[in-house]
Amino acid sequence: MRHAASRVVLITGASSGIGRATAEVLAARGCQVFGGVRAPATTRPLAGVELVPLDVRDEVSVKACVEKVRNRAGRIDVLINNAGVNLVGAVEETSISQAQALFDTNVIGVLRMIQAVLPGMRRQGAGQIINVSSILGFLPAPFMGVYASTKHAVEGLSESLDHEVRSFGIRVVLIEPPYIRTNLDASAAQAEGRIEAYAPQRHRTAALITQKTNTAPEPKLVAEEVLRAIEGPHRMRRPIGQAALLSRLRRLLPARLFEPSLRKAFALDPSGKGAVATQARAQP
Question: Which residues are catalytic?
């Protein structure tokens, strides 16, 4: 087992939630941790963590951050791509500009960070890239479809990248948490083009997701899995808690058996015909 102590770690989105918890856990374990945040001056200090300016949407900021960490520590052993934003609403309600902005942070931001650290990792012949995905990286997410598509994209990117870089001593890991008690959902943007036909179902689904988030595990659960990924043997996918069970069920069960439980989990009409029937009856 590899010990995390003395490893140089750069984590994005370290100001709150999973990023902050992970930075704390790794610093306590002895890592030299750099936490990328958009506004270091107004971010609460973290013991043992050096906060560095970083906006994953800005290529100049990304390159400056990576260069600063390398100048301070000499290398980067582990990159943890954690920064991300959410968006709630039906696919039809989501504007193209909103979708582009979401992908710019959740997918292109990850790509910017990866491209910035890989030259140094290749030179040193070792490195680890840990991408924080989600249970929604392998499951559908009604009324968070564009967000789920960003996580599906990160999963495809991660698997492909791992095959490209492993000959250089670099490995890629996906962390797949279930609902976690953070402000990601509370601060989520809403789709701009509200359509009344979706409203009843959207409200039911949103209320259920809020309930699940309010009773979800704390971010430290994810931080501890990140630590295990660093110290333990390589495993590409690391689903956590409920996500582990659902990952197995999704692979093993046929759709006709899996989908009813999925629809129930999102408070959707079991048959999927309720709204259509209601609208049909309303036709003159």
Answer: 133, 147, 151
